[in-house]
Design brief:
heteropentamer, A alpha/beta, B alpha/beta, C mainly alpha, C: mainly alpha, globular, binds adenosine-5'-triphosphate, binds magnesium ion
Chain lengths: ~260, ~325, ~280, ~280, ~260
């Protein structure tokens, strides 16, 4: 089982330039995450959460600042830091099983083993029977679950999850929460988890970061010390979520204008 | 080129190129009856057939062909382009085979009648094209290129037949077997046979050329080749009926299609076969071409074009009269 | 608050088509395709025959399908067409195969290296417009009068088309796939063969089909390098002799080979792509 | 529970590049592209000159860029090339234009009607492989010796390529776009022009580029129909006279026109597509 | 302002056949919706909710059964029944503004007017400043909002919304709830609204339909009679959501197997 890694961001900032549009997506950000910590990210739509995850994953270069994982600067993607994309990003030319097995191929395991791991994960996200289906034959929530299986199957030491449960019904979500939490308890992966569900953030996270609207800055860093396992319906979780909601509201209300764009 | 590099026993591969056409009859005969292969032994014979003279010259310049049968105009071009270096004419093969045919209704009887007519030729700057332009000029007319009324339309021989059949041209000055086909298949009539326009009725139609380096390195092989060529030419002249049969079989073997016997027979009558390259007629053609602005700025110097010593050696061997370069025998 | 849970009839098994019935359905579909084809080509041939007979053109200039059919049968009988076609097909497959390999490699490099794209890429766009005859002199010069020269011309005719197809395909790959794959540890060759090429495949396939057409056309030009039994020469001979029936018979042969190849190779690939990606499930 | 809100430094203005600086950045980019090109083509020309001088081939077979340049300049000076190129270009644009219109219409119909796809579509795949010379006899027959015959051959050479490009592009359109558009009330012509064609455009563009190359090649063949001053005839004359320098000068002209057209028309379209769709933002 | 329409489904059923896979997505379903009713749909991932919406929109044919809107059988799409796709389905070749204006073009309004309406809607979903942006330059939540603006701008009498607020933060979601509710109050459109958020369903809906897992059947039809306007945090809303959660759980737990696929 892999162990978590420390993540350090110093002055990390991202500006998108395309054509004649410039968008400041992320203001200079400092962040330290302990190995094995479960960090949830909350913030307004378009505040730069996905951007931050892409930077940490090494899929986009930061405009300035440095990101280090275990004292090594992030210079590109690594299968040890897997990002679960907001829009699943499954490969349409592969079946569900091949999608899930994709990340396993670069391992040295025998192929039969890889297949077995892939099928196990498909079962764990409740998609048995869809191994041979193609992406366009799946519902939105099923796609998200395949993406989840694909990311977890590779057993990375750092998980970057971008609204992974956004399109799931309450029950499936609950079950996957349990899966994720027990997996995390057993392997102590470092997790960055973007969600819009405040209760979900409180139920899963060791820490909750609250971002200001675009360009995103961390305006609150909340530690959740409730005992685990926690459920979404626990009164303590609801309580802390309500408090956090207020922080969030304050952070978001501060800026009501949406227009930091220069043409 | 690569093929003429000697093997370990000193034998070389000789690539002989020709066009599968009746004006190349001596070549077709010499290949078909095995005479050429025997004559060149112990060297290896490789025969390549081309569909047009310029491509053949291209291959010769590239060193892929040693000896070739080709018309005077591509030969002259290759000579001029290589600044006299690449090739030599070592013999002639045929004369004649070029007719001016017209649509009967066009009423072309004198050069003056060409005014306002559309006449096809097989290739711009080719033998017939030059001749036609010279004829037009001589009649005091101008071609449409020069703002005159005579439309000279160079186009592929096969297309000439089609447009003639559709009545889109009034006449064509072209080579056999197309003249005969135009007559037999499109109702064209002969205005004149080009032979009537030359002294003694002879002018160069097909040459035998050799790549200069090969001539210098292997004069003996060239002589052996010429022996076969002269014999084949004699055979064609002496046994026209047999020659026609052999030629047609060979054309069919190479191109997969034979000429109709009727066409071949008539067309054969319009061609004469001779090993004389008829150098003086080439000089006249070159002069005409030059006057009309073809063939570059300077008049080509044809002094170096001919290398007739091997031919004369062979002719002497056989007790035949030799040929002098630059003048008729 | 009033929650009234009303029970609905239990779900019945809804896959009304058991495997055999589905097979039958597919067979029916295939039959209707066949019927369409038969009707279409019959009508086409009849119209052609009619034009050839009553049209303003003499039948030696515009032969009908019967005459062309006779020429085709004659050519097939005496073995010329079979032999010529097989010679040409071998050249075509070798040349096209080389173009595929070279095209994929070059196309990939063009996307990979911006500097190449701005230089070699620009050049290739121009080279692509060159007619195949332009390559004949160089082919003789570099390879001599032999098969290699012919295949060189075929490659020059189709390579650039494949290169540009691959380049355009790859360049238009949604970046998200590449990101996802790199993220899962795919790099280098694996990234290309398992992600970039499959993702670009629908567009690349279109380029490959164009390359196939270019290869044919170049072959016909290349075979005029010198006489040897081949479709190119049969076509040229037919033209030289104004034998319209033979020209059309060879054209028919080319069309038949082209269509067969398409049905056997490209069409199944296309169907597979469509099935996987879910293309064509909605008709506008 | 411990909520500690720590204030971070206020966000500074992060668009460090004001418009003029960005312009400068772009200019630098363009300059580097230009530098690459200059270096590449200089090296290419030098290598060519070297091969022509010290290579195993005589310079009249393998003229160097200087000789070709001289031929080019001479041709441009005496007006032949300018005149010939303009004649050819007009034919090309008319023929290609007709192919575009016809190709888009036919391609659209092929996708629309399954019956057509299985019949005409199949036929077109075969027709596409036919070399342009096949159309010459029919062109003479139907149109006679005139511009229309030449343009007909150009159209026959490039039309099918455009048709198949459009067909493949449309067939590979993600169905979701069509659904979304129909849902918003787009139907018929509007659905096609505003949704199906734009959605398919990245792939169609690749087909259009191939069609352009096909048009050029067909034009060169078509211009041999009869002699009239044009690039095709200049090329043929060069070949007939074994004038390698002239052949290469015409080739250069073709390449130049091809590249220019690409830079002026296709490249900007490609850039626009890439910018809008977000292609190429990640390099693998 | 348009008025709502009545919707009737009788024995509507959908089976997807592609290649050698057959998936029963929706069991035979009967449903009646009154004009102007706001109906929320809840159900497990993959149970056929999106499928049902596509059938009503006329974008997919039903395998059997009849769907009528205002006594007219549904035979194809109509701009009077607009579907908000689960995955936004924006046109990548158009700017945000052109996307929003797309559905307006077939109206007879002058173009300037259409532009104005589009810009108004962009402002209402808080995306002012992004009128000229292309789809790939937007965050996930921003895309959803553009899709919302595009659908609402056409002013259809029936709205079919497939998890429209799934990727939005709580605050933006609250604001858009308000927008939607006031719009609905003013225009009385008939709304079918798929969501996985039970509280959202209770807060917005007149009725909540609960689906069984695939093939989906309506197993509960719950009427919500709480006074409007309602907020997600209202105690009554929370209460009824908790009750509904139990119904949902019962419906979903009944079937734990995921495999009604025939190969
Ligand atoms: N490729 C891109 N090009 C230009 N701008 C971009 C690009 N990707 C994102 N942006 C902009 O960056 C900002 C932040 O986007 P990001 O996707 O990080 O937001 P987010 O916090 O994940 O929002 P959401 O919760 O809606 O997913 C947005 O304003 C978006 O418009
Ligand atoms: N085009 C298709 N081809 C084949 N199967 C399909 C297709 N679309 C959907 N399905 C199948 O139909 C079932 C229902 O899908 P649907 O998208 O309606 O689910 P959903 O209720 O919207 O789920 P979610 O909440 O996850 O979005 C799923 O099992 C899915 O695999
Ligand atoms: Mg995001
Ligand atoms: Mg759905």
């Amino acid at each position: 089982m892999s162990t978590g890694r420390a993540l350090h961001l110093r002055g990390v900032q991202k500006t998108y330039v395309s054509g004649d549009r410039t968008v400041d997506a992320l203001a200079p950000t400092d962040l330290d995450v302990e190995p094995g910590e479960f960090v949830c990210l909350l913030g307004a739509s378009g505040c730069g959460k996905s951007t931050l995850l892409q930077l940490v994953a090494g899929l986009e270069p930061a405009t300035s600042g440095t990101i280090t994982v275990d004292d090594t600067p992030v210079e590109g993607p690594s299968s040890d830091r897997v990002l679960l994309f907001q829009d699943a990003a499954l490969f349409p030319w592969l079946t569900v099983e091949d999608n899930v097995a994709f990340g396993l191929k670069h391992s040295t395991r025998p192929v039969d083993d890889q297949r077995q791991v892939a099928r196990d994960w498909i079962a764990r996200v409740h998609l048995r029977g869809f191994e041979g289906a193609y992406v366009h034959q799946l519902s939105g929530g099923m796609r998200q679950r395949v993406a989840l299986a694909r990311a977890l199957a590779t057993d990375p030491s750092m998980l970057l999850m971008d609204e992974p449960f956004g399109a799931l019904d309450a029950l499936t979500r609950d079950r996957l929460h349990e899966e994720l939490e027990s997996l995390w308890a057993a392997t102590r992966k470092t997790v960055l988890f973007v969600t819009h569900n405040v209760r979900e953030a409180v139920a899963l996270g060791d820490r909750v970061l609250v971002f200001s609207p675009r360009p995103g800055r961390i305006v609150a860093d909340v530690r959740v010390t409730l005992p685990r396992p926690r459920a979404l319906e626990d009164v303590a979780v609801m309580q802390q979520a309500a408090d956090l909601m207020k922080v969030l509201r304050r952070a978001l209300d501060a800026t009501t204008d949406d227009s930091r764009i220069e043409a | 080129g690569s093929s003429s590099a000697p093997a370990s026993d000193g034998s070389v591969t000789v690539t002989v190129a020709h066009l599968p056409n009746l004006t190349n009859a001596p070549a077709l005969v010499a290949v078909a009856d095995g005479r050429l292969r025997t004559a060149l032994a112990p060297h290896t014979l490789d025969v390549k057939s081309f569909s047009a003279g310029p491509q053949l010259i291209e291959a010769l310049l590239a060193g892929e062909v040693e000896i070739a049968y080709v018309g005077p105009s591509p030969a002259l071009n290759g000579f001029v382009k290589s600044r006299g270096a690449a090739l030599r004419v070592i013999a002639g093969a045929s004369s004649g085979g070029s007719l001016f045919v017209v649509r009967p209704e066009a009423g072309i009887r004198t050069p003056a009648d060409l005014a306002g007519k559309r006449i096809a030729t097989p290739q711009r700057g080719g033998t017939q094209d030059i001749a036609l332009r010279f004829l037009v000029k001589g009649a005091g007319l101008r071609t449409s290129d020069e703002g005159g009324t005579v439309a000279v339309v160079p186009m592929q021989p096969a297309d000439i037949l089609t447009v003639f059949q559709r009545g889109q041209i009034d006449g064509a000055w072209t080579a056999e077997p197309w003249c005969t086909r135009l007559m037999q298949e499109a109702g064209a009539t002969v205005w004149f046979d080009e032979r009537t326009r030359w002294p003694e009725g002879r002018f160069a139609t097909t040459h035998v050329i050799v790549a200069t380096p090969f001539l210098e390195r292997h004069p003996d092989i060239v002589r052996a080749f010429l022996r076969a060529h002269v014999e084949a030419t004699q055979f064609v002249v002496d046994h026209p009926a047999d020659a026609q049969r052999v030629v047609n079989a060979e054309i069919k073997r190479i191109t997969t299609a034979a000429l109709p016997a009727r066409v071949l027979e008539t067309a054969f009558r319009h061609v004469d076969f001779t090993w004389d390259p008829l150098a003086d007629t080439v000089a006249v053609m070159a002069d005409h071409a030059h006057q009309l602005g073809f063939l570059g700025d300077a008049a080509p110097d044809l002094q170096q074009l001919y290398a007739l010593d091997p031919l004369n050696d062979v002719l002497r061997e056989k007790g035949l009269p030799p040929i002098g370069a630059g003048g008729p025998r | 608050m009033d929650i009234h849970t009303h029970t609905l009839p239990a779900p019945t098994t809804l896959d009304t088509a058991p495997p055999r019935a589905r097979d039958r359905r597919l067979t029916r579909l295939r039959r209707s395709v066949l019927a369409h084809r038969i009707v279409f080509f019959t009508v086409l041939l009849c119209a052609w025959e009619l034009v050839s007979r009553v049209g303003p053109w003499p039948d030696y200039l515009m032969p009908g399908p019967l005459a062309v059919g006779r020429a085709l049968v004659a050519g097939l009988r005496n073995g010329l067409f079979v032999h010529g076609a097989s010679v040409s097909l071998v050249r075509l497959l070798i040349g096209y195969g080389l173009s595929l390999v070279g095209g994929v490699v070059l196309g990939t490099l063009l996307v990979r290296y911006t500097a190449l794209r701005n230089t070699v890429g620009t050049l290739i766009v121009g080279l692509q417009a060159l007619p195949s005859v332009c390559w004949l002199p160089l082919a003789i010069l570099w390879f001599g009068l032999n098969e290699r020269a012919i295949i060189f011309v075929v490659v020059m005719g189709s390579l650039f088309s494949v290169v540009l197809g691959v380049r355009d395909g790859i360049a238009n790959t949604p970046p998200i796939f590449v990101k996802a794959a790199r993220n899962l540890g795919a790099t280098g060759v694996r990234l290309y063969t398992e992600v970039v090429l499959p993702a670009a495949f629908p567009t690349i396939l279109a380029g490959l089909k164009q390359g196939w057409a270019f290869a044919w056309r170049s072959l016909m030009a290349a075979e005029l390098l010198y006489f040897s039994l081949s479709l190119g020469n049969l076509l040229q001979t037919g033209r030289d002799l104004n034998d319209a029936a033979q020209v059309m018979a060879v054209m028919t042969l080319i069309i038949l080979v082209g269509v067969t190849f398409n049905q056997l190779l490209f069409a199944p690939l296309e169907r597979r792509v469509a099935e996987r990606w879910g293309f064509g499930t909605t008709r506008a």
